Known about the structure:
alpha/beta; eight-stranded mixed beta sheet; 10 helices; 39% helix; 16% strand; Peroxide stress protein YaaA; YaaA
Amino acid sequence: MLVLLPPSETKSPDGDGAPLDLAALGSPELTPVRETLVDALVGLAADPPAARAALGLSPGQDAEIGRNAALRTSPTTPAVQRYTGVLYDALDVRSMTRAQRARADRRLAVGSALFGLARATDPIPAYRLSAGAQLPGLPTLRTLWRPALGGLLAGTGELVVDLRSGGYQALAPVPGAVTVDVLSQRPDGSRTVVSHANKAHKGRVARLLATTTAEPDGVVRVRALLRRAGLHVEHDGGTALTLVLPPP
Length: 248
């Protein structure tokens, strides 16, 4: 099972690993696109106004441009520890037992605008690039990533649970992947999409899937696993699951 996580704009500044070595990352077929994007971000960092415009940053976020300038020289840390925020707080890999972490390292990967697919243990630096960015002189990220990344994800040979947000799913959709939508039920029975809580609950779902000793092979088994954990999960057919949060 491969559990695809969304990245986060916020990233830990920590790291004591060697500088970025693209050849050391998993999925070497993605290296050419990774090289193109790393070169583009490093070059763009030399022009802060252009970098702000391309990356959607304000002058107060110039430290993010500095991170991109140092992509090839700054220290790295495993991808699953690089990303921070609500989802990753709920995933909480640091609290996992050794056996749980070993399973999580095998199953988790992050859909990244810069690296395409970053496996949990891939050593990466802090960076700034979102799925909606448009880098000067290059095609859209969707155009760059879809041929190589789409083929990679379609050919994994294992169940894919895609928890990425829409912008990252669009970079390379995965046919047949299990998806999870999170809805909140109001006291009157109506339902609404949640935002902040969506990330937290997807983090909990990711933790359950990453650490279970079971090996679900389809949407029905995933649904059963989540229900056993006490979650209200609905399945109306196909590969989409709906996680329904009770009224507050």
